[in-house]
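> Could you send the Phosphodiesterase/alkaline phosphatase D prediction when you get a chance?

Sure thing. Input:
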Amino acid sequence: MKRTVSFILTLMVLLAMIPTVGLASEAGEELTYTKPYLLTLNPSNEMNVVWISKESGEGFVEFGLTEDLGTTVAATQYEIEGLRTSITPEGYDPDPAKNPELNVFQQIATLQNLKPNTIYYYQATTKVGDKIEKSKVYNFKTAPVNGEDFTFALLSDLQLKAESPATVKQIGQHKPDFIIYGGDLQNTPWKAGEWFFVEDCYIAPAEIGKTWFEIMQQEEDGAELLQYTPIFITPGNHEVDDQRIMSDKEMATNNPDDWSLSIYMQMFRPLYPEQEYYPNGKHWYSVDYGDMHISSISAFRWHPWSGFEAPGWIMFDDISEGSPQVRWLKNDLKTTDAKYKWVNMHWHMLNRGNDGWYPYSEPLVEKDGTVKYPHGDYAWNVLRPLFEKYDVNGVNFGHSHVYERYLINDVNYIEAASIGNNYRVADDPYHPSGYKPVIEENSIRSFMIITKDENGLTAQGFAASGPNQGQVFDSFIIAE
Ligand SMILES: [Fe+2]
Ligand SMILES: [Fe+2]
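Output:
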């Protein structure tokens, strides 16, 4: 009898050691589309652990100061609406409505009352019926509240580009404390298979393994990305749900309901609690990380059909003087007492290129079909004076997929987005203001790491390709 009890006990111990479904498995977990990712508006004392599951169920996060964890928080589940798989494994129908809707659920566990500048370990668990899937045990560090050091990375515009995984892995190997991402995540937000791997969903052969979450959650070779570090993100033109409004005149002019950032805003819900999807909704936020204040605004536009001039560039969110976003930004920059100020926006208000010659404001189409911009350039005439007046140290862009920076009246304007490809053409004109970049380097892929220490904010541009891969090719002081 004693031996039987002993055998049963041994069996129970052995059974307990068998991994539950998908435990710590690699990509393609049974219950989840993504690993956990971290979002917060209060990085010194609160963290949202977020992940995407395939079925409705329950989620919870266990966390603590050691890998033994100890405290459990239940996740709130949201259904993410608007994502679709492809109508056949060979491709999507261009009309989103003709592709099957995909069930996608988001789990958000909010870890509160955390200590600043402290490492926390956590593990996310998904439960659907009797199936349980646990993530690995990851960790993150809360932000300091005073002048202590931190490091962050700048990137944007991954867009399923061929070299994005290799570049982003190098960023992850620097183990930044947080990431600032300047917009353009993939190409078409309603296509679920551009966010993460979806079984039987079309993906172009060249884009396999290059979905946004797969790139941003790499953990091979010591990379620490979204599972370990919060991301502060801003929308670009590729975050509009239905990209046909950029090429279809009828849609762009007649269907305001199609002008929506809904999928992007659902994915990053804790940064946008109001979930206002339509133009001039609340697409901005700000956050204090240590002694740096980060303001994220929505500034992007596109030329929808027949090139630049018919009927002209279209803006999504207004950045004119007195617009809700500009009123907010002015107050936000005016009221912060942070030592350093940073602005994250997608539109590259200073890069070389033809598009810089078309002022960022509402187009006016003349009877003869020509287009004028009587209001001038709002980025240059409205935003730039605010940045200067309120001593903004750095403004980062995306959109041009270049490495380029300018210094104007003590404000650094930076695009460090040659992550996966590059759009620079040799004879691109300089900005009409006459300002030229301090540096442009587009012969290699690259990224930027910025360190705040006792010397101030120091930035380094790293080569991500070429003979000097891994080396710093551009080093400069942003603020002392
Ligand atoms: Fe882009
Ligand atoms: Fe863009």
